[in-house]
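Worked Example 4.2. Consider the chain below.
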Amino acid sequence: MIKKYALFLGAGFTILSAGFMDSIVKEVSSIVSSSTNTQNNQLVSALTKSLNIDSKQAVGGTAALMGLATSSMPKSDYTNLLKSVPGLESVVGSASPLLGMASGMIDQNSIDKIFKSLGMDPSMVKEFAPILLNYIKPYATPQNISMLQKAWIK
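Applying the procedure from the previous section yields the following structure tokens:
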């Protein structure tokens, strides 16, 4: 039997199943597996070379961390950031609707699960986040960088 929880949001409410985040993790992994727009992507290349990971792991890790960023950034800042950073929008694009559905619910535990499902140790987030942040930095506002640091670097 699936337990259900209700989150009360203002006057309305949404019912979430206990396995909702597990579904998100599986879907992100599945979406990443079918992603083909990464061969000439500079962001993916920077991550794969720096971390000795494959493109699937680079895409999935980036999508997961950007999903976490959605809960700490205003939507307009997030959207502008995706558009201004070369390669970021295409990397995150296919997972965006799914991550948007989970916006505000992705936490460090979810990130750890996503990294594990991609074959990476969750401790790699500490290596992954600074490289992603350094890639983003030239294209982002200082305020965006600050928000990303707070979301990713604990």
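DSSP finds nine helices and two strands in the chain. Strands lie at 4-9, 12-17. Compare this with Example 4.1 before moving on.
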